[in-house]
From TrEMBL:
Species in which this protein is naturally found: Thermogemmatispora tikiterensis
Domain Mandelate racemase/muconate lactonizing enzyme C-terminal: residue ranges: 132-237
Keywords: Lyase
GO molecular function: lyase activity
Record-linked PANTHER family: D-GALACTONATE DEHYDRATASE, D-GALACTONATE DEHYDRATASE-RELATED
Protein name according to UniProt: Dehydratase
Ranges where the record places region Disordered: 383-403
Domain of life: Bacteria
Length: 403
């Protein structure tokens, strides 16, 4: 079996573009991968246009480790977000192909499941006015939808420090959410790398009475010593990792013991097998794994198969029930969240099937999503003008095909 073609399809939404990658073989089998690139979709497509002819075409999709090593090593560059995301889309699609060829779900090819259900938490649900009353109502809808865990960033557009009024507002928002969901629902606090260590510690202490299960990325990701400084001064578990892209990036995090939970993104960190290795390594440090997932249905499928086989898995992020639920129609087949949990995926491979017509009906948008802009939480990205053109976002050129 050989890979004979790779095709890309970009689906646009109000605040994110989802890139689906189809890997096609000479035996008629094909697999699908996916990644949400934050403001870097063109860079991903450009990388694939060069990498696919040199590394992927003609390769046996069943030889996944060899393919990943070739893509990682042979460009002779330090791999970062773009390269590792491109590798991940191909790698995930190859697992899909292998599972289909054998008639088995991917998790059975990775050692088999260690759990029958996969706990989920909702994100993207608080696209409302930033008041305690509106956050309270929105949080109630999350619980009514069946979730038993939810995450929020209550800090507005804050960076490094917060004004006293903004600190009080953030605390009031979290207090309102805790009141809405009750004492038994997990509450996760996202900080998006906003703060200096002193502010992160102060806010963690202010929020401790509401018993959050973690604070996430309290400081920017470049300085792990600063993260350790926070971890040593707070009683809430610290989570991080969505902006680390290789196992080598995680090494100092482990050695410093600067976090309690790691959050690698399968689609930005080389794919399923790479995160499987990383999770096993994290287990040596007694760290839990809660994969970052801001993607669509294929990204979610990959995450569920990984969660099924990972002993130190904690909980799975999910956007697509309370934010742009229609996105799930792009590749149906995933189980639904019931009483806070996904069941194990069914069907061969990833268990989802890309609907190319549906994706084509939602073309790529020219958008810029900025987590430090005012009212970013409404998830209505800015549509910058196209240089030299008056074209609207609905008049974008088609996404390139890698052939």
């Amino acid at each position: 079996m050989k890979i004979v073609d790779v095709k890309t399809h970009v689906m646009g939404t109000a605040w994110r573009n989802l890139t689906f990658v189809r890997v096609i073989t000479d035996e008629g089998l094909e697999g699908v991968g996916e990644v949400r690139m934050l403001n870097h979709t063109d860079a991903l497509l450009g990388y694939l246009a060069e990498a696919v002819p040199n590394h992927v075409l003609g390769h046996d999709p069943r030889h996944i480790e060899d393919l990943v090593q070739r893509m990682y090593r042979n460009d002779y560059a330090r791999a970062g977000e773009i390269a590792m995301s491109a590798i991940a889309t191909i790698e995930i699609a190859c697992w899909d192909i292998v599972g289909k060829a054998l008639g088995r779900p991917v998790y059975e090819l990775l050692g088999g499941p260690v759990r029958e259900r996969i706990k989920a938490y909702a994100n993207g649900w608080y696209t409302v006015e930033r008041t305690p009353e509106e956050f309270h109502r929105a949080a109630r809808r999350v619980v009514e939808r069946g979730y038993r865990a939810l995450k929020l960033d209550p800090f507005g557009s804050g960076f490094y420090e917060l004004e006293p009024a903004e600190k009080r507002k953030a605390v009031a928002l979290v207090e309102a959410v805790r009141d809405a969901v009750g004492p038994d629902v997990e509450l996760l606090i996202e900080m998006h790398g906003r703060f200096n260590p002193a502010t992160a510690v102060e806010m963690a202490r202010e929020l401790a009475p509401f018993r959050p299960s973690w604070i996430e990325e309290p400081v920017p990701p470049e300085n792990l010593a600063a993260l350790k400084k926070v971890t040593e001064q707070v009683t809430i578990p610290v989570a991080t990792g969505e902006r680390l892209h290789t196992r080598y990036d995680f090494r100092p995090l482990f050695e410093l013991q600067a976090a309690d939970i790691i959050q690698p993104d399968i689609t930005h960190c080389g794919g399923i097998l790479e995160i499987r290795k990383l999770a096993a390594w994290a287990e040596c440090y007694y760290l839990l794994v809660a994969p970052h997932n801001v993607g669509g249905p294929v990204s979610t499928a990959a995450a569920l198969h990984l969660a099924a086989v990972t002993p130190n898995f904690k909980i799975q992020e999910h956007f697509n029930d309370l934010n742009e639920e229609w996105v799930k129609q792009a590749a149906p087949g995933n189980p639904e969240v019931v009483d806070g949990y996904f069941s194990l995926p069914q069907g061969p491979g990833l268990g989802v099937t890309l609907d190319e017509a549906f994706v084509a009906a939602h073309p790529r948008q020219r958008i810029f999503f900025n987590l430090f802009a005012e009212n970013w939480h409404l998830r209505q990205a800015v549509q910058p003008p196209v240089p030299g053109s008056s074209a609207s976002s609905a008049e974008q050129p088609p996404s390139p095909t890698v052939s």
